Outer-membrane lipoprotein carrier protein (Shewanella youngdeokensis), 208 residues
Amino acid sequence: MNKFIAMAIAALPILTPFMANADAAASLKMKLVAIDNLKANFSQTVTDINDKVIQTGEGIFALAQPNRFYWHLTAPDESLIVADGTDVWIYNPFAEEVSVMDLDQAISASPIALLVHADEQTWSQYQVSQVGQCFEIEPIDKEAGVSEVKVCFNDLKLNQMVLKDQQGNTSNFVLSGQTGIAAKEADLFKFVIPADVDIDDQRLKSSN
């Protein structure tokens, strides 16, 4: 799995109305509730522990309450992540492979699904602090794959997300051209399995 996909999945738990850590969490929750949905372009830069740029990319990002998320990396290599409200679909066109997991699995694997997932118990696993219009979210469990996530706003516009992993890599996402999601764009959050792809079904309920 390349850095873009790994860091995007790691981003999934912050995209949620937030219930944790007093004033900072309450302020972040208010902003996220006010942003019922959004669509934006993003540019991504990944740097290593020595601040050396190891990857760059760009694509389209969208979210909608509750529990819907769209992440389409368009360059340099295409990949797609869609959370449809129940499941998270990860599509790699080059490998002709689709992976699918429960939304709760994706959230427990990382802190960015929280931007679209309202769960007080889940948010109790994170510490939140605020500096200006930026919020830093750190997992209480220091063994988590992502060591820190920062989300920054310009009033009620989400304009930056920064993820740091345990290996010291930092992925910086800058959002631009932000709009609401038009009714005709609701299908962004519906994943249609392409023909002739391998499917890796990791959903817990699928084994029951």
Observations:
- The radius of gyration is 16 Å.
- The chain is about 15% helix and 45% strand.
- Confidence is low (pLDDT under 50) at residues 16-20.
- Residues 105 and 203 are 8 Å apart (CA to CA).
